[in-house]
Specification:
about 150 residues; mainly alpha; elongated
């Protein structure tokens, strides 16, 4: 088998490699180039297209989910704050939702009055009795000390 002169010349520079090495490398480089063009590029394009599509879907779903949770949380906090304002007797909330004459608030006042359960009334009475006892004891102590 006769080797091309260029392989013989290349082999002169390397004592451990012969012209067959450089001929084989040239053959595999040509094969790899064909593989690159015909097989590798379409495979990489399909992979990158699939990866892009999956990444786009994942990021979009994550952003939408995050936004949904944030909006849901904000609405929940708004409703919770309104209920707390009403139940704690904040004047603006009572004026707006219970004491106002707009939007059939007479009906709302009736519903609010009916919704106060006996348990809440009893707990509040007990709390006021405890507070009254505590204040009476403080007053008696102050009278003994200063009186």
């Amino acid at each position: 088998m006769a080797f091309d002169q260029k392989y013989l010349d290349e082999a002169e520079s390397y004592k451990s490699l012969g012209p067959a090495y450089f001929d084989a490398r040239n053959f595999t480089d040509a094969l790899a180039e064909r593989f690159h063009e015909e097989l590798f590029l379409p495979m990489v394009k399909k992979f990158s297209d699939d990866l892009y599509s999956e990444l786009e879907t994942t990021v979009r779903n994550s952003l939408i989910s995050d936004a949904t949770v944030n909006v849901q949380g904000e609405i929940w906090r708004m409703v919770d704050n309104m209920v707390e304002a009403l139940l704690s007797g904040e004047r603006w909330a009572l004026d707006r939702f219970v004491l106002n004459d707009r939007y059939d608030h007479q009906k709302i006042r009736g519903a609010v009055a009916k919704l106060v359960p006996v348990e809440v009334q009893n707990i509040r009475i007990a709390e006021l009795a405890d507070e009254n006892k505590r204040l009476s004891e403080r007053l008696a102590s102050a009278e003994r000390r200063y009186g």
